[in-house]
Every structure is written in structure tokens, then in C-alpha cells.
Design goal:
By secondary structure, the chain is an alpha+beta fold. It has one domain. Helices cover 15% and strands 49% of the residues. The strands form two sheets. It has an eight-stranded antiparallel β-sheet with strand order 1-4-5-6-9-8-7-10, with no helix packed on it. The chain is globular. The N and C termini lie far apart (47 Å).
Length: 137
């Protein structure tokens, strides 16, 4: 019974991954000049492609050089803003480093991203990386 349930869950997860991947649309590319965390995974400085899955408020962040891809869960629903400057925002501190904290697209939609909190004793700063309209090659 337990094995059958586990197998069913794995098959459902694989099927959903295929469906989500089939609907992905690359929106923009960003050149991130520092190491950062996103979705609990560490990324090196480099060029990244951001893809959106609008029905589920999930994004992928793909390293253009290595092809390493990570699904990023956002806090749904995405909010609308008058700000049309597409960007990635990172919350940074001395000890914790930088973590992706917000995604803003050029159509004004924005999402907060789950990120670890900065300790009260740490000084925090926000780093902004502009998203380009062209896709990274």
C-alpha cells in the first residue's frame, strides 16, 4: 500500500513537471554580478533566464552557461504595480549573503519570493538587477 502510494505520487510529480515545462515561456534575461540564493539553492554570478508559469505563480531561473535550472515558488497571487521596470530584487546581508526576494515584470506584475530572514543584528541592503527584454543565448 505504502509503495503503491509513493509510486503514484512520483508519477503525478513527473507528469506535472512535464506539463509545467511545456507551458514555460522565457520572459527575460539578467546578468547577476554576485552569488545568491533562490529557492534554497545557491547560484554563482552569471547570466540567468527567467521563465514564468502564470497559472501557478511559479518561475524557473536557468543559468545560461550551465543550463542548471531551479523552480522558484512565489507568494501567490502576484500583485500589480505601476512600476514597469522589470527587475530581480535581492535581500543581502554580511553573514547570510544575497537571496532573491522579489520578481517584477515589465507589465507591472510582481511577486515576492520566499527568502530567509535577515537577523536583527545584521545590516540588510537591497540589490536590484534589471531584467533585459532579450533572451540570453
Amino acid at each position: 500500500m505504502k509503495i503503491k502510494m509513493t509510486r503514484t505520487m512520483i508519477l503525478a510529480a513527473v507528469a506535472m513537471t512535464g506539463v509545467v515545462a511545456a507551458h514555460g515561456e522565457t520572459r527575460a534575461a539578467a546578468e547577476v554580478g554576485f552569488e545568491f540564493q533562490a529557492g534554497g539553492v545557491g547560484f554563482q554570478a552569471g547570466t540567468y533566464r527567467l521563465s514564468e508559469y502564470p497559472q501557478t505563480d511559479i518561475f524557473t531561473l536557468e543559468d545560461a552557461g550551465s543550463g542548471h535550472k531551479k523552480f522558484i515558488n512565489t507568494m501567490a497571487p502576484g500583485n500589480q504595480t505601476n512600476d514597469r521596470n522589470a527587475r530581480l530584487e535581492f535581500q543581502c546581508s554580511e553573514e547570510s549573503g544575497c537571496a532573491l526576494s522579489k520578481i517584477v515584470l515589465s507589465d507591472g506584475r510582481q511577486w515576492k519570493v520566499w527568502a530567509s530572514r535577515v537577523k536583527r543584528s545584521e545590516m540588510a541592503r537591497t540589490e536590484v538587477v534589471r531584467l533585459g527584454n532579450k533572451q540570453a543565448e
